[in-house]
Amino acid sequence: MNVLRNKWMGVAGNLLLVSLLFAIMAPVYDLFHFINQLFYIAYFYLFVGILLWVIRGGFFDAITYSMRRFYNRVSKQQDYLDDWKQKPLPSQTIESTWLKFFLFHGGMLTAGLLALLALYYNL
Fold it and tell me: Taking every annotated instance into account, which residue ranges of this chain make up the domain DUF3899 (predicted)?
């Protein structure tokens, strides 16, 4: 179980995933296409991590709160058991461990991507 929680084993798993995608999808086996596959995986992690960071920062809290309030006022069927004021906001539902997970893996894969790009352009 500790193997799954080890973040470096996760990075190694991601590199294995990139290698597998490279072996399956690359038309030519060269460094250029490996860098492309690494880019797809790295920026997926960074995109999700930055999205979670924005949500965790409270950007959508006011919008969510006002939409719940508007729906409660306009709704024809009043649900008296549904307390819209007590529902958790989006920033309260995102755990910091997921945020750290996605940003760490995206950052490590991006560092590897930049190293391979430097190698590719120096050859």
Answer: 35-117
